[in-house]
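Problem 12. The chain below contains 653 residues. Write out its predicted structure in token notation.
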Amino acid sequence: MPATVQSVVTIAREGEIAVVTVDNPPVNALGQALRQGLWDAAVALDADPAVRAVVLICAGRTFIAGADVREFGKPPMEPHLPDLVNRIEAAAKPWVAAIHGSALGGGYEMALGCRFRVALDSASVGLPEVSLGIVPGASGTVRTPRLAGVAAAVDLVTGGKPVKAAKARALGLVDAVVSGDLRAEAIAFARDALTKPLPLPISQRPVSAPEPGFWAEQETAITKRAKGEAAPLRALACIRKAVEAPFFDALAFERETFLSLRGSDQAAALRAVFFAERAAPRPVHLGDVRPLPLAKAGVIGGGTMGAGIAAALLDAGLPVVLVERDAEAVARGLANLGAIFEGGVKRGKLTEAQAAAHMAGVTGTTDYAALHDADLVIEAVFEEIGVKRAVFAQLAAACRSDAVLATNTSYLDPRLIVGGLANPARFIGLHFFSPANVMKLLEIVPVPETAPETLATGFALARALNKIPVEAGICEGFIGNRILKRYRAAAEALVRGGTTIAAIDAAMRGYGFAMGPFEAQDLGGLDIAFLQREGARAAGQAVPETLGDILVRAGRKGQKTGGGWYDYAPGARAPLPSTGVAALLAPHVTPGAAAMEGAAIADHLVAEMAAEGRTILAEGIARHPSDIDLVEIHGYGFPRWRGGPMHATARRG
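Solution.
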């Protein structure tokens, strides 16, 4: 019988090898009880003369996946993780970490305290702390360069992305990759290791300084990538300290950096986003409602959006029937889809074989009858109510009565699309964002008749596609485009008040956006929103003229016409201030108005977003402020480390 050290840690013996098993579901998080259990195990096994080596392994679906999120924001309790990692490394008998699933953050730091690391071929390891606004706090920045070299440490720590077992082995982050029975393989590895001289503990290994200029180059690259996020640069400083200072001095510097960042605004924002993302795929209000099975999908329309949706479905392993109006359109749709997968191959995201397998999973046709056995069909045709209603009339005739039918509309009222559809309980809005195979956000828009099972199926689809789902009520633009409309209107109001277009864009880039509102419109095309406004006007709605309307009527539709809010040199994408735009808009700018400057611009525009968000919440269009923040982060480029407009303005008070 294994001896219990703590309820979450047990010890068994295989001859001279002790096997320490962690069992702290669901992800073996490093809570206080687990840390204490491992400390006590190290003490007990040091005192056992029959034990020559120790294998550290975990029950359940993963190795230690990191810190216990329930302890986030609370004072740390002994034993502190850095002390535990040092204690494991100083054990009288060598420890072997046997890794399956993911060894992340503190979990990988625990593995760094072991003398050896053996990983299952499906495992991954990483130090993702920068994604939470902090740096590793238990030797990740100090031991990793001693184990795998400075370049690998910089990539792992400042990027925060885990690496799979094979790459981890190539980098030196693990000592062996195995398949099959991890426990047996790790025990065999430990026995073999005892027949050879043991390597030095990682803390005692030398670390080589990089080439001259390395640190400056990395600082420049990380600054550009981080766009105002603090943790990646602080992590780089920790790695540099690990190279230039004695081990324990560097360890103290890392811990000091970790503690200083833990209470920062950025860390608070990133924690809020982490928890919101964690909760989003399984909303509490759906309770135990079970989604409908999804084995085959259909997409109506093979344009940019339809092809992107089809690609996302195929990436998730769902076969797709792509329906278009004629053979020529089918060919274009399949070509659009092929181009997406070819791009994936060029970027190293897919192999040639995977791209071919994806294309083999799609059937292009003009015949709606091919959808007779589809579980889900998503309409992605032109944004015009008559066109969409005609599509759904054909779907009603061709599909099973229980098939989920979805519209990808971004502005139209789904209730007008579904009117007259048999069994409207199966209807739902699924608003993807372009490019649909890349963008993480999925707005899920039920109509009053939508059944709970249909709604649950929308969330299940988001999980399958690895997207962030947010439920939205029905209004013009739902959550995201409604806030975008106010954001753009507020930016135009600043221009009318004398603030320059370039100053507004610069302020939003300085806040952390990849581009400002006017640069973004030039990239996407000013005519898209213009046509939507014109459609509303044609329907009798009173829509005030915007500055963008003036530009479009003058032939300035953005980069594609060589000019929008800015001028563009032929073949270039760099925006150039436009005297033509200044002349067109001059009659609409208040003479002698005081221009807004710098950070005040960004504060004002984010406050406008949040004000619209509060109205959306009051109307019941969104359930939680965090839903609005997720929409803005994953659909509209709001800087993640700011937490979203609702979090940012609440934090600012």
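Discussion. Residues 1-6 have pLDDT under 50 and may be disordered. Students who got a different answer should revisit the alignment rule from Section 12.3.
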